[in-house]
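Worked example

This section walks through a single chain of length 338. The input is the sequence exactly as stored; nothing has been trimmed or padded.
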Amino acid sequence: MDWQSVDWAALERLREVFLGRGRGRATDAAAPAEGAAAAPGPYWTNERDLASYDFTLGRRIAWKWAAVLEPLIARGWTPPARQLVDWGCGSAIGARSVLAYGLEGAFDDVVLWDHSPVATQFAAAAIHARRPTQAVRVAHPDAVVADGGFVLVVSHVLNELDTAGRDALIGLARRAASVLWVEPGTSEDSRALITVREELRDSFHAWAPCPHDASCGLLAEVNARHWCHHFARPPTEAFTESGWSEFGRRLGVDLRSLPYAYLVLDRREPPRAPGAARILGTPRESAGLMRILRCRADGVEEVELLKRTAPALWRTLEKGRHDGLLTWREQDGRVTTA
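Given that input, the structure is written out below as tokens.
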């Protein structure tokens, strides 16, 4: 696939389908989910639909996965099981991202499932094109049985599920050794993912974005207007390739903005620095003062940072040279030392 081969009509049709199914909230211009289970019938009509999606909207989702996986692996996360399950795989952006980030050879078995046979065929072929020796099979989640559990990958499906589909997915997650889950960065999707976290909290440790295993601080009434979201950095090609300009114009996508919500759960306890804080959203800066919404074990709170107090931290935050997980000291709602 290249920009000359993109089926714009198919992308515009998919966009309208998902706008009609409640995805108009997404900043990502209603990017089609990575193969949702409870949609009323498959929305992929042929391989070209998937190829066009994978080349455009799928790449944007892959950039979100990169923002999740790079710091996660840098913190020392490794797959706790030899089987990878991509639930609602679509074009398998989730599974392919996991395989790409230093984890090739980590899995004996990759299992794909989607309600669309066209999608699973495309996904399997896409994995084999890059990794001809990787074992890949299509199977219903109910048939997934692996000694030592499995790593579950879920990507952009949550707001497409009915109650039965959601319950089935949560049930599958409870059987996993680790869960890697990425969703759009809207308030609704983030809140839905927080609900998932709370349901699974008794079985897993939170590796990311949460710096603790306690109940989510955003559930406090005082934080009702906030949500847990983050922004990935689009690569340079998103601003230099003319095809991306055409994509943004036709589908109404702001190429500068790549919001996402995510959750990484694992039965192993993660390494944690005492007092670590996760930055939510983007710090707001004005005249030497920065307001930061942060999550810690003691809750979610907006704190202030004066530029003169910690100039190195200020520069780090201003330039976005961090993965959102930092350690500092606070007093009376203000950062004192970093």
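What to look for: The first helix runs from residue 8 to 20.
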